[in-house]
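Structure tokens please, single chain.
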Amino acid sequence: MKDAALADPSLARIGPGMRKRSGKVRDERVTLAHGSGGKAMRDLIDDVIVGAFANPLLAPLEDQARIALATLSALGDRLAFSTDSYVVDPLFFPGGDIGSLAVNGTVNDLAVSGARPLYLSCGFILEEGLEIALLRRVVASMRAAADAAGVAIVTGDTKVVNRGAADKLFINTAGVGVIARGVEIAARRAEPGDAVLVNGTIGDHGATVLKARGDLAIEADLQSDCQPLHGLIAALLEACPDVHCLRDATRGGVATVLNEFALAASVGFVIEEASLPICTEVRGVCEILGLDPLYLANEGKLVAVVPRAQCEAALAALRAHPAGREAACIGRVVAGPAGSVVMTTIFGGERVVDMLVGEQLPRIC
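Here you go.
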């Protein structure tokens, strides 16, 4: 895909000198010609991708996105920039798909810095033989997710690889956002006495994708938590301006996030098993398969570390938002041992919660 770009935000319509749209895609499946740089590729980009993402900022279709600095500086004093790649299997699962996952995942990576997400890029790796109709579904899902998150997909690229060189479709998204003045969120800021919050049930995405693969005869009504979190985080910051740490708990789950915080701030964390919000279906899947929900991936859950004095206000703000209705305080920050995470079990004992070793579930996002 020829890089499609962002013009000045004041651009309101396609103007003189902007390339006209090409023809319709007649093929039912992606061929190597769709990555050749010729008319077949142009038709695929214009009809399937640009046609879905169409907005005045994308229209010039230059090789780069051109962002007015005045637009960014009016919103804050720092740029947040993130990128991620998505290889989830299967491509579609209850509660989401690779397209919505790619958009929401990058939006959330920006949002946990306190940034307002603004612009995304999108790179597609297409396997020869991929159904055009399937690609259209994914692109439409990305457009819907971007619209819901209030971001624009402004530049991108498409490559086609030989049959067998990829598994149907991989997506890379990068994102740009702006951090408002005075917002300072970083893992190193965790302090003894701070409270640890999550915005809802954990492990939903990991358990859902595992079931969707169809390898296991598990009867459970599971749905991914794939959702954007920037609105929730904005509400949290309004109620609790001094949020110390934020991170979305994706691969490696809540346990990995807490270990990263503990190492960065040279503090310890103590969490309470009885306080962990886990839905009945996820708990059942974990018991059957011997998995630990603390390590299961999430795509719409965050871990927040806030001053103890602001814990109740932060919880109230989270619970008032649709993405945080089941928010809970799950533990606290302690002085040490530095870099440690310990869980108090429901039986009154303690166990160390280490960083995830290996991968519980590959290709989860």
